[in-house]
UniProtKB/TrEMBL annotation:
The lineage of its organism: Bacteria, Pseudomonadati, Bacteroidota, Chitinophagia, Chitinophagales. Keywords: Glycosidase, Hydrolase, Signal. Belongs to the glycosyl hydrolase 29 family. Alpha-L-fucosidase is responsible for hydrolyzing the alpha-1,6-linked fucose joined to the reducing-end N-acetylglucosamine of the carbohydrate moieties of glycoproteins. This is alpha-L-fucosidase. It is an enzyme of class 3 (hydrolase).
């Protein structure tokens, strides 16, 4: 009797995800809650790094990590490109017609790679998780994957090729020394894998793809599994439901792992874990979601991009606010070069965001969306439509530099229990009315980064806060300022 009682007690104390046994159906798999740590994190670092980091070139507005596809197909697509031969022409001019993409593996040397320095930078940025490309669409693996080298008949993983190093394992170990979570991007399809090219899809999935995915999970215990390249085939062909059933029921990370929604053609924003968007602005969903994008118009490092192609720290902070106020996370990408160096402009942007979060992180981490994401000024709220990959710089037009006649986002809101945070991209002069909040007895208003409470009065629409006139030295941060309102009913 005592043994039975102890067994029941143990089961009662286990998290819900540990007790559940999921079935290979979307109805069952979708019932698994997204682990809370993900919604609490809000800000993550995406890393696109691989053989494509050697040429590191594409026309502006184009994904440089797609170099092999642009080269071997002879056609380049992206913002301002519609099937041009730009990458092919560049390659033939710089490397010659006989230089194969696979030869770039001989130059992916990563001799400047310092994973501990990377991890420290990510921690200073204020990010709470990291997602590294374990393998992009070219099939090159950043860990000692025997399947990768076997498939291509040449050294096609980081250990077998020029770097002679488990670069993924080294970063995993470095990140796990910090409080950050560690995850892996993984491309389901590979452009020029012989099995995939010859449409031997079952063999590709069962002898190559699934063994690689399980190897990653068993070897490195990731906090996130982030598939991509799913659009080419159905979830049934990818065996996605079967893999997720193993991941949720049997894997070493079954209780804690987070996954996205990229598991097959037509599955995105319908099934899986959290939903994803890419180079978009203004989306919102009723479940956990994440926007991913680079600091410029490419995920992989593109040496063709100039300073004006990079988002400013100001626009990236406003992007973070726009996403978090709508209940989402921002996965901001960096693209190291082939030597293992994170470009200084990317380092600077991360440190600038981290400096802002040092003051205002309380209004970001562990928060949830308030009943109203933003407070608008008077004017037209219908923002101009944008085609292609949308720059974060559009947030400047929505906040500090609206076109004539257009409204601007005056406040972004987040909440934590009975506390509401109202974040202003323009420091108000004299006073500001925070609408939609009903203060209860004992309510206070503070400006994060400044001691003491601010004066306020109740209004018909909310509260009116007196804003002190601050010198530049007294202003707690740059770009956006947070009013913390406690005891809101």
């Amino acid at each position: 009797m005592m043994r039975k009682w102890l067994k029941l007690l143990v089961w009662a104390l286990l998290p819900a995800t540990a007790m559940a046994q999921y079935k290979p159906t979307w109805e069952s798999l979708d019932s698994r809650p997204v682990p809370a740590w993900f919604e609490n994190a809000k800000f993550g670092i995406f890393i696109h790094w691989g053989v494509y980091s050697v040429p590191a070139w594409a026309p502006k507005g184009v994904y440089a990590e797609w170099y092999q596809q642009w080269l071997q197909s002879g056609k380049t697509y992206g913002n301002g490109q519609n099937g041009t031969s730009a990458v092919l022409d560049h390659h033939n001019k710089v490397y010659g017609k006989d230089f194969s993409y696979y030869q770039f593996a001989d130059y992916f040397t990563v001799e400047d790679y310092d994973p501990d320095a990377w991890a420290k930078l990510f921690e200073k940025s204020g990010a709470k998780y990291v997602v590294l490309t374990s393998k992009h669409h070219d099939g090159f693996a950043l860990w000692p994957s025997k399947e990768a080298t076997k498939a291509f008949g040449r050294p096609w993983n980081a250990m077998d090729a020029a770097s002679k190093r488990d670069v993924l394992g080294d970063l995993t170990a470095a990140v796990k020394k910090t409080p950050l979570k560690m995850g892996f991007y993984y491309s389901l399809y590979e452009w020029y894998n012989p099995l995939y090219q010859n449409k031997q899809y079952h063999e590709y999935v069962t002898t190559h793809m699934i063994p690689q995915l399980k190897d990653l999970v068993n070897r490195y215990s990731p906090d996130i599994v982030w598939p991509d390249g799913e659009w080419d085939q159905t979830d049934s062909l990818w065996h996605s439901k079967e893999f997720l059933t193993w991941l949720y029921n049997e894997s070493p990370v079954k209780e804690s792992v987070v996954v996205n929604d990229r598991w097959g053609k037509g599955i995105r924003q319908r099934h899986g874990g959290y939903f994803t968007t890419e180079y978009e602005v203004g989306k919102t969903f009723s479940k956990p979601w994440e926007e991913c994008r680079g600091m410029g118009y490419s995920f992989g490092y593109n040496r063709n991009e100039d300073i004006e192609d990079y988002n400013s720290a100001q626009s990236l902070i406003y992007l973070l606010l726009d996403i978090v106020s709508s209940g989402g996370n921002l996965l901001l990408d960096i693209g190291p070069d082939a030597h293992g160096k994170i470009p200084p402009i990317m380092q600077e942007r991360l440190l600038q965001i981290g400096k802002w979060l040092d003051v205002n992180g309380e209004a970001i981490y562990d928060t949830r969306a308030w009943k109203t994401p933003v407070q608008w000024t008077a004017g037209n709220r219908e923002q101009p439509k944008h085609k292609g990959y949308v720059s974060a710089e559009v947030l400047l037009k929505q906040t500090v530099d609206p076109a004539p006649g257009y409204a601007r986002k005056e406040l972004f809101f987040t909440r934590k229990g009975s506390t509401v945070y109202a974040i202003a991209p323009v420091m108000p002069e004299g006073s500001i009315e925070i609408q939609g909040v009903t203060p209860a007895k004992g309510a206070t208003v503070q400006l994060l980064g400044r001691p003491g409470n601010l004066q306020w009065t109740k209004t018909a629409k909310g509260i009116k806060v007196t804003v002190p006139k601050l010198t530049a030295k007294e202003t707690p941060c740059e770009h956006a300022w947070t009013f913390k309102v406690t005891q809101v009913s």
